[in-house]
TrEMBL record:
One of its GO terms (molecular function) is phosphatase activity. It comes from the Bacteria. The lineage of its organism: Bacteria, Pseudomonadati, Atribacterota, Atribacteria, Atribacterales. This is Metallophosphoesterase. InterPro entries: Ap4A_hydrolase (IPR050126), Calcineurin-like_PHP (IPR004843), Metallo-depent_PP-like (IPR029052), Pesterase_MJ0912 (IPR011152). One of its GO terms (cellular component) is cytoplasm. Transmembrane segments: none annotated. It holds the Pfam family Metallophos. Residues 1-149 form the Calcineurin-like phosphoesterase domain. CDD domains: MPP_superfamily (cd00838).
Length: 241
């Protein structure tokens, strides 16, 4: 069985289509939140997720759109995109977003947007923080998103090792070790690599492949500008930052 793990699509349908071309019809699909926000095609992205019957968790952008977080928690560009997105989602998509859980478990793994101890809003960014989470929380493998950086943390019971997937990579899960894995962002990478990022989990082999895919960044950026969204949201796509 192969599970495709997509996170932080952020309304970027061009990036999502490029990733979708890499998937097989038999893949199960998991989305780790932030389907919408920033990009100009939120409705098409939510429709795709629903059409594919993908399982998804709640992201902080969805939480804000649903009124669970105040808009003031976001920087002005993100806040303005959230308000725009709220106006550009149909009632079916809005009620679908309202059904998303904070986390779920399957294939022996935990799936969450932010972190196991604060599912929607904690950013996992360094090995010391990852170690705290390994010590506090009970999970074997956790897939997370939110930071838009493809990387992972491995805990062997004594120390935490950080793995960076700069232009993709592969990881074999070892018995006795625990993992926090971020497969990167489909629609707004922030690790200096503008290619869309996603993961493939080969369940029986316990193997994870992180893949980067080129897509038409210019087209996605143009749509953001034409929609009247903040210009910075278009330009950052070109640098992956
Ligand atoms: Fe995000």
């Amino acid at each position: 069985m192969r599970v495709a793990i997509l996170s932080d699509i952020h309304g970027n349908f061009d990036a999502l289509q490029a990733v979708a071309q890499e998937l097989s019809p038999n893949d199960e699909i998991v989305i780790l939140g932030d389907i919408v926000g920033y990009g100009a095609e939120p409705e098409r992205c939510v429709e795709w997720v629903r059409e594919k019957k993908a399982r998804a968790t709640l992201g902080n952008h969805e939480a804000c759109i649903l009124g669970l977080f105040p808009v003031s928690w976001f920087n002005p560009f993100a806040a303005s995109a959230i308000l725009w997105t709220r106006e550009h989602l149909g009632p079916g998509s809005l009620s679908f977003l309202g059904t998303l859980p904070l986390s779920f478990e399957d294939y022996g793994c935990l799936f969450v947007h932010g972190s196991p101890r604060s599912p929607v809003d904690e950013y996992i960014t360094d090995p010391w923080q990852a170690r705290e989470i390994f010590e506090e929380q009970d999970f074997s493998v956790c897939f997370f998103g939110h930071t838009h950086v493809a990387e992972g943390y491995v805990w062997d019971g004594k120390r935490t090792e950080r793995i960076v997937f700069l232009d993709g990579g592969e990881l074999l899960l070892e018995e006795g070790k625990r993992y926090l894995i971020n497969c990167g962002s489909v629609g707004q990478p922030r690790d200096g690599n503008p290619k869309a990022s996603f993961g493939l989990f080969f369940v029986e082999e316990r193997r994870i492949v992180i893949q980067r895919v080129e897509y038409d960044v210019r087209a996605a950026a143009r749509k953001i500008l034409l929609a009247g969204l903040p210009e910075v949201l278009a330009y950052r796509l070109e640098v992956g930052g």
